[in-house]
Design brief:
- The protein has about 350 residues and is mainly alpha-helical.
- It has two domains: about 130 residues, no CATH class; about 200 residues, Orthogonal Bundle (hpI Integrase, Chain A).
- Helices cover about 50% and strands about 10% of the residues.
- It is built from 17 helices and nine strands.
- The strands form four sheets. Strands 3-4-5 form a three-stranded antiparallel sheet. It has a two-stranded antiparallel ribbon with strand order 1-2. Strands 6-7 form a two-stranded antiparallel ribbon.
- α7 packs antiparallel against α8 and α8 runs antiparallel to α10.
- It starts with a helix and ends with a helix.
């Protein structure tokens, strides 16, 4: 179906006004937003929910624009696809109980038709919608995985962490930013979204007298503090980035303008964190491997455990909700008990960072 730009814009507005709730939560806003865009691009209206085709799109065809403006694969896992479809079905279930929506369907009927003919058309729309929305119309096969290969979830060893941290370099503004981001994430175990949301005053908080990183709002709306312990060397890179980017307040990590000489006033997003990590593959057992932001969380957790940190302290630093019974027994932990061991070392010395000036980077 070929649509003019004006008609496509109207179709998108109509789809959005009906399918998007007045006060959507984060999942609804994201999942329904993707679905509305997909409908509109294919010239489909909200009352034409072809979830079987949308399932295939999510599993095999979905893509997005990367930072260069090129299309990049972004297909979803079966589990995530199921979550998207569940959100869409939930929204349609709300709509089918709304008389105003039924009135909108009557507007599609020919006003010259009899009342019985119009009612029959609306009933047919409802039947077709419910058929398309039924779970059996768009099944998603889930394979129960007993064992997960090491390649699926990377947990870097200390020497691999050093190689990753050195990959961006520290002689350009972009390289310094990316080095600061990677070091802070691997030394604190924070999520990509948490790193993107960091402000300057979050970098130096204290917990029980221990220098700590503050995560203002982690998963589930939980705020936490993560003691740096001997890994506070990561601040050496962050401070160098802030100095060269002339950032004194607000978001720590920001986009870099074309030319690489200055930064944007706004903070980066989660997708940008992923793009930054994708730019620095490292060699693992002779093969180039992409390290994902969540791999840095796994790396933090695994190395902390290997170096003697107990699971409860790791749990609190990562902001997980499991081991609740254990926490009830032991109570809140002191910051000194929770700081990680000295499991990584900075690959650059302080003199190298001290030599970083605006002229050197320029």
């Amino acid at each position: 179906m070929e649509l003019t730009n004006a008609n496509q814009s109207k179709l998108w507005r109509d789809n959005y006004s009906i399918l998007m709730p007045d006060d959507p939560n984060k999942d609804q806003k994201s999942r329904l937003g993707f679905y509305i865009d997909w409908l509109t691009q294919r010239g489909l209206a909200w009352y034409q929910p072809d979830l079987s085709a949308y399932r295939d799109y999510l599993l095999h065809e979905r893509s997005r624009l990367d930072k260069r403006g090129d299309r990049a694969p972004a297909a979803l896992s079966p589990q995530t696809t199921l979550a998207h479809l569940a959100t869409i079905r939930g929204r349609y279930n709300q709509l089918t109980r709304n008389n105003d929506v039924r009135d909108l369907l009557y507007e599609l009927a020919n006003p010259e038709d009899s009342e019985a003919e119009q009612r029959a058309l609306v009933d047919e729309f409802f039947i077709r919608m419910m058929n398309d929305l039924h779970p059996t119309a768009a099944p998603v096969k889930i394979v129960d995985v007993q064992d997960v290969a090491d390649s699926a979830h990377l947990r870097l060893k200390p020497y691999q962490v050093s190689a990753l941290v050195q990959a961006p370099g520290i002689t350009s503004l972009r390289g310094l930013r990316d080095t600061a981001l990677i070091t802070l994430m691997v030394c604190s175990g924070i999520r990509a979204a948490e790193a993107a949301a960091l402000h300057v005053d979050d970098l130096r908080q204290h917990l029980g007298g221990e220098l700590s990183l503050r995560v203002r709002e982690g998963k589930g709306g939980k705020q936490r503090l993560i003691p740096y312990g001997p890994l506070d060397w990561c601040l050496m890179y962050v401070d160098a980035w802030l100095r060269e980017a002339d950032i004194k307040a607000g978001h720590v990590f920001r986009g870099i303008r074309r030319g690489g000489k200055s930064v944007r006033p706004s903070g980066i997003g989660t997708w940008t964190v992923n793009d930054i990590m994708n730019a620095y593959p490292i060699s693992i057992e002779g093969a180039l491997c992409l390290v994902k932001p969540h791999d840095l969380r796994r790396t933090y957790a695994r190395n902390a455990y290997d170096f003697g940190m107990d699971l409860e302290r790791i749990r609190q630093n990562l902001g997980h909700t499991s081991l609740q019974t254990t926490q009830t027994y032991i109570g809140e932990l002191d910051g000194r008990d929770r700081h990680p061991p000295n499991m990584f070392s900075p690959p650059h010395d302080q003199r190298s960072l001290a030599l970083l000036t605006g002229a050197a980077i320029g």
